[in-house]
Specification:
Elements (H helix, E strand, L loop, with lengths): L29 E3 L5 E3 L3 E6 L9 H8 L2 H4 L2 E6 L6 H6 L5 E4 L1 H9 L6 E6 L6 E6 L14 E4 L5 H11 L8 E4 L7 H4 L3 E5 H10 L4 E5 H4 L9 E5 H6 L1 H20 L1 H11 L5 H11 L15 H13 L23
Parallel strand pairs: 3-4, 3-5, 8-9, 8-10
Antiparallel strand pairs: 1-2, 5-12, 6-12, 7-10, 7-11
Helix pairs in contact: 1-10, 1-11, 7-12, 10-11, 11-12
Length: 343
């Protein structure tokens, strides 16, 4: 549910307007004065740039916004969509304090000729919940069946490498796969326009189920264990981490509470998200939310925590398939230091 529309122009040209705020900002806190009148306490402004439109990957933040968790931490959080420029680049140049990105994009950004000053500070979901999908009647059940077929994607940095890897490992010839950029027409294109797409279970697969559209689905983490990387992640600019560490901790404390709420109350969380993403049906958001409820912190001691081996495994994969030229230590890519303490 993430990348199809994220290959945008360079971030330096971007200007994010306050009017873009999805659902508005948090309310200012109030405190009683000695005379019995109330005055609004000053809240610290914080901007979060999404990777795309609001969806169930982001529910914890919208819950924290809606339930006043950010306010309780003294923060006025604005959640905005990216306009021009990839989110990682926008955060790097100070257009936002935090952003939603992906392990692969962070790794590419940090190993580029001009590395971006960013770092991942929390994993939104612990395992990669994406995979390849095909219309069920076409008989495409594994990468071995990709030969002679057409794949519609978004042109991301590691996309071609993943396709090449899983096809090669299945004994198929990658050169026989036709690659095209998706026109955004959605899952129905699998029936008569293209053959294979990269789906996200909590979003695309739910849409297919709701529309009685049968698919064959191949989770990428089952095709190569190194593809079980963190997607999405919350990132921050190094300057923010160095100059405002307490603010970062407050933001993650409230965000963690929001995701905890989403895990415990998926139906209520879907209703909250629906207020900020009304273009999607409540039924779809509820199904998606129920799917993700036990995925946010699956196999982790706490929400947001990341591990070296996950970063190192995918970095190794990216080097092997030429996405990046040299490996980068996991410690330079992420940190758990700003997360709330384990309970």
């Amino acid at each position: 549910m993430r990348k199809m529309k994220r290959n945008l122009a360079a971030a330096a040209a971007c200007a994010l307007a306050v009017s873009m705020v999805l659902g508005g900002c948090g309310k200012k806190g109030e405190s009683e004065t000695a005379g019995g009148t109330s005055e609004k306490a000053e809240l610290e402004e914080v901007t979060v740039i999404l990777d795309y439109v609001a969806n169930t990957n982001h529910t914890g933040m919208y819950v924290a916004l809606d339930q006043g968790y950010y306010e309780e931490e003294g923060l006025k959080v604005n959640i905005v969509e990216p306009t021009e420029g990839a989110t990682a680049s926008l955060v790097a140049v100070g257009k936002g304090d935090f952003g939603i990105s992906y392990q692969e994009d962070v790794t590419v950004a940090l190993t580029s000729e001009d590395p971006l000053p960013i770092k991942a500070i929390a994993a939104v979901i612990q395992h990669n919940t994406s995979g390849f999908a095909a219309y069920k009647d076409k008989g495409i059940h594994s990468p071995k069946d990709f030969e002679g077929k057409t794949y519609a994607g978004w042109g991301g940095p590691g996309e071609e490498a993943v396709l090449k890897a899983v096809m090669t490992q299945a004994g198929a010839d990658f050169s026989k796969l036709n690659l095209v950029i998706s026109d955004g027409s959605g899952f129905e294109a699998l029936k008569d326009k293209v053959d294979i797409m990269w789906f996200y279970e909590a979003w695309d697969s739910v849409k297919c189920e709701l529309n009685d559209f049968p698919i064959s689905y191949m989770p990428v983490r089952d095709l190569d264990e190194r593809l079980d990387y963190y997607t999405p992640v919350i990132i921050a600019g190094n300057q923010v981490l160095e100059e405002k560490p307490e603010m970062v901790k407050k933001f993650l404390a409230a965000t963690s509470r929001g995701y905890g709420f989403a895990m415990e109350k998926p139906e209520e969380s879907a209703e909250i998200l629906h207020k900020y993403a009304p273009d999607y049906s409540l039924e779809m958001l509820t199904m998606s939310q129920k799917y993700l409820a036990d995925k946010y912190a699956e196999d982790a001691d706490r929400w947001g925590e990341m591990k070296d081996r996950v970063w190192d495994n995918y970095t190794e994969f990216m080097v092997e398939y030429g996405v990046i030229q040299e490996a980068i230590p996991a410690a330079e890519c992420y940190t758990n230091e700003f997360l709330p303490d384990k309970e």
